[in-house]
Design a protein that fits this description.
Layout lengths: L11 E4 L13 H14 L3 E4 L11 H15 L5 E4 L5 H14 L3 E4 L9 H12 L6 E4 L2 H4 L5 H8 L4 E7 L6 H11 L3 E5 L4 H7 L3 E4 L6 H12 L3 H21 L1 H11 L16 H17 L3
Parallel strand pairs: 1-2, 1-8, 2-3, 3-4, 4-5, 5-6, 6-7, 7-8
Helix pairs in contact: 1-2, 2-3, 3-4, 8-9, 9-10, 10-11, 10-12, 11-12
Length: 304
């Protein structure tokens, strides 16, 4: 199936910023607004607030609402704001979805957070109930690396039939066959298909993905936009060149986790203080040095 992406915000670069907060989980709304303003100025295609990089799982409902309000005040009418509403309980996710809509979100994103592993039918009901709570376009957040839940193609097909579900955010396929997976998803579902895992940006966009949901794009959007646009245009030579420049940084993402790496880069840029939520800890000095060496060309070339 072919789907028009103009009716929803799930195309191009979706930039996922850190939600600056202190050790007690109190969001710095002013710092978040400044982060959003930088992304708006660079003209990212959407902002993914309260994703994994946005530490949604570590914030209270009250702080998540404050974050949406601060981001929406800045982004509204300028760049679409996609807000994560994942939670362990369905009723909690319902509350978060309603909060996000009331606070100014343009779209919703939800991962199947669980402690007891979910069945495919349980996940369907979870999404059916939460997606029905709002008229906002809804994106499935398929992130088995953190949720330990894998969406079967039959489940994605069922979810695609729900009226507000418009998109899926996929992990990079273990096989590396992005084009093959895209063909299957487009044959079986009616959703915009985007990917995450920044080191796969070139592969995903060259294969024809609708969107890329980027961690680095939430902090240093310019090099990611250049890479994404080259891939989207089918310019493989340029996309591979830009990807190779970023390869040392991608390797640190895979070695240490992109969230920890992004906090190192925020510090290097002199941005407002933000604490990793406990029990997460900052990288050790040797790892920080490796990250900074890998990122130096990108940091030097990014004129923020």
């Amino acid at each position: 199936m072919t789907i028009a992406t103009s009716s929803h915000p799930f195309s191009g670069l979706s930039a996922f910023p850190v939600t600056p907060a202190d050790q007690d989980g109190r969001v710095d709304a002013d710092a978040l607004a400044r982060t959003v303003e930088r992304l708006v100025e660079v003209k990212v295609d959407s902002i993914g607030l309260l994703g994994s990089t946005g530490i949604y799982a570590y914030l209270s409902r009250t702080e998540r609402r404050r974050a949406v309000e601060a981001a929406a005040e800045c982004a509204k009418g300028r760049v679409p704001l996609i807000v994560g509403v994942g939670a362990l309980r369905t009723d909690e996710a319902l509350d978060l979805a309603r909060d996000a809509e009331a606070a100014g979100a343009d779209a919703l994103l939800m991962a199947p957070v669980s402690y007891t592993p979910l069945t495919q039918d349980e996940a369907f009901e979870h999404y059916r109930i939460v997606a029905a709570a709002s008229a906002l376009p809804f994106c499935i957040y398929n992130n088995p690396g953190t949720t330990h839940f894998t969406f079967g193609i039959e489940l994605l097909e069922r979810l695609s039939a729900l009226p507000t579900i418009r998109a899926v955010k996929m992990p990079l396929p273990a096989s590396g066959d992005v084009a093959g997976e895209l063909a299957l998803l487009r044959a079986r579902t009616d959703m915009s298909v985007g990917y995450s895992g920044d080191w796969g940006t070139a592969d995903a966009m060259l294969a024809g993905a609708d969107a890329f949901f980027s961690v680095l794009g939430g902090l240093l959007p310019r090099p990611v936009l250049a890479l994404l646009r080259a891939g989207k245009a089918g310019d493989e030579r340029e996309a591979r060149r830009l990807d190779e420049e970023l390869r040392p940084l991608w390797e640190t993402f895979r070695a240490y986790g992109s969230l920890r790496v992004i906090y190192v880069l925020r510090d290097a840029l002199g941005m407002e203080p933000a604490a990793l939520p406990l029990p997460l800890r900052p990288l050790a000095p040797e790892a920080r040095d490796r990250v900074l060496r890998a990122a130096e060309p990108v940091l030097m070339s990014d004129t923020r």
